[in-house]
Amino acid sequence: MENSVTQDGITTVLANQSLDSSSVRPEIVVQVVDLKPAGNRYTFSANDGKMKIKAMLPATLTSDIISGKIQNLGLIRLLEYTVNDIPGKSEEKYMLITKCEAVASALDSEIKAEIKASTGIMLKPKHEFVAKSASQIINEQRGNAAPAARMAMTRRVHPLVSLNPYQGSWTIKVRVTNKGVMRTYKNARGEGCVFNVELTDEEGTQIQATMFNAAARKFYDRFEMGKVYYISRGSLKLANKQFKTVQNDYEMTLNENSEVEEASNEEMFTPETKFNFVPIDELGTYVNQKDLIDVIGVVQSVSPTMSIRRKNDNEMIPKRDITLADETKKTVVVSLWNDLATGIGQELLDMADNHPVIAIKSLKVGDFQGVSLSTISRSNVVINPNSPEATKLKSWYDAEGKETSMSAIGSGMSSSANNGSRSMYSDRVFLSHITSNPSLGEEKPVFFSTRAYISFIKPDQTMWYRACKTCNKKVTEAMDSGYWCESCQKKDQECSLRYIMAVKVSDSTGETWLSAFNDEAEKIIGCTADELNDLKSEEGEVNEFQTKLKEATWSSHLFRISVSQQEYNSEKRQRITVRGVSPIDFAAETRLLLQDISKNKTSQ
């Protein structure tokens, strides 16, 4: 059977781009030319032998490209796609592919019209098309559809993965998987209200939608947990990574002109749950961070239900702890709360002897016992999921895991240390690992632990600032007397000094500068900023200020640090900030060394 690129396929696509989104678009076969990565997606030029158009493949097809299923110079059939304007270049178009299939592997060369005639490379599309108007096609499909499905066929539903800020009109079909409370705010522009929802489509892709003021009041009661809606006339922008709660590069804003329509019962769906698992031995980097993580593990033990009194309202709530293990030979305790503790928690207790595999989505990582996990209101627990990860984990556990000695991810961490050592022994690096990787922290701050010596503290640097005793924010001298706090909007006769300083640290692999703030700097210097300032003001033969700084140097500490990127004079630089400081626990250091020796012996 002959196969080929669709003759004049791109011309047909461009001619039909003005049709409304409900139109059925023809399936065409094109050649992939100049395939290259762009972020987490791939771009290419779609070639039909006569014309080319820029195109983008979704991140969901990355695995097909890596595996070689879709190749440069190969042929693909476009099943679902949209044509959009390139921002700033209204005459240029690009195709956003949402669904396609591979037709042929890489050809010897790029297909051109004159080459096709001479070589006889003729490719036939999957279907022969009869020229019909878009309305004819839709009417035929409506006539064959069940009455309940006809409403859904009047619109073209876009998958969430295909949306971008430059797209025109779109309609999505999503389920509300989390609904926030209505919040009020006050800023320079006045007072307002806001709330957000988390939306999930049938493929499991999620996005956060936010509504302000009139839109918030209009849609707050309309959105109900678990219900499915058609949504259109919203806008997208890049997500603020500091506040986003779902894995999506974009966030959605709905205004009072947006359309939200509840789907009928026949159009309901249960979204596929997508996981992004973090191995247990890598959980240390997420301790006390805003990121929510997914984990998969074999159940080792399940505790009975216990009642915990909540601090804010003294209400008694149920809690149950389960211990999970994975192929990293580490275990972690997961706390199930409320209905998860009494419902799924009881199921797990009944089947604990069989050591089921469970996958949990959206967990918060805390520092109790070094590293611990807790469910939140939107956490989702799946017992014995039907996934490759679960099958692999169960096979490992049955073959060798059940006889393997496991250790808790938090073991070896000092329980007395408040902040610095909460994960000092799970993600330890040398300074050279940071200094030799200048791109670390480009997308978001990354966290490490390191052991190093304070090698130098510059004495003439600005080591502190004047702070409000109430909120610790910076204050300025008032016109008459005292200090004015802009944050508290009040004047006080006194203020306090708080550290903001830079220290140089060294280890066996190199050295670098760290930024340290008040609580961490106090542990390094050994006194408060007010006390150090008093020493600096003293006069005498012995400079107590210099002596104090010298005493702090060449002392060894465990540091919890974050690495991020900041721009200075149009140049990006690493900023390494101390998040915690802890004294050396030599017993824990010894256990860490023994673990490393054991790993090296095993690998050999």
Structural features, described:
It contains 14 helices and 29 strands. By secondary structure, the protein is α+β, with helices and mostly antiparallel strands. The chain folds into 4 domains: 9-104, Beta Barrel (OB fold (Dihydrolipoamide Acetyltransferase, E2P)); 156-262, Nucleic acid-binding proteins (OB fold (Dihydrolipoamide Acetyltransferase, E2P), Beta Barrel), CATH 2.40.50.140; 280-408, Nucleic acid-binding proteins (OB fold (Dihydrolipoamide Acetyltransferase, E2P), Beta Barrel), CATH 2.40.50; 431-467 and 495-591, Beta Barrel (OB fold (Dihydrolipoamide Acetyltransferase, E2P)), CATH 2.40.50. The strands form 5 sheets. Strands 6, 7, 8, 9, 10, 11, 12 and 13 form an 8-stranded mixed sheet that branches. Strands 21, 22, 26, 27, 28 and 29 form a 6-stranded antiparallel sheet that branches. The longest helix has 18 residues, at 586-603. It is globular, with a radius of gyration of 30 Å.
Biggest sheet overview: 8 strands, mixed
> Mean pLDDT, nearest integer?
81
Rounded to an integer in angstroms, the radius of gyration calculated over CA atoms is: 30 Å
Give the fraction of residues assigned to helices. 10-25%
Strand segment tally: 29
CATH overall fold name of the largest domain: OB fold (Dihydrolipoamide Acetyltransferase, E2P)
Domain Replication factor-A protein 1 N-terminal: 5-104
Domain Replication factor A C-terminal: 447-593
InterPro entries: Euk_RPA1_DBD_C, NA-bd_OB-fold, Rep_factor-A_C, Rep_factor-A_N, REPA_OB_2, Rfa1, RFA1B/D_OB_1st
Organism: Arabidopsis suecica
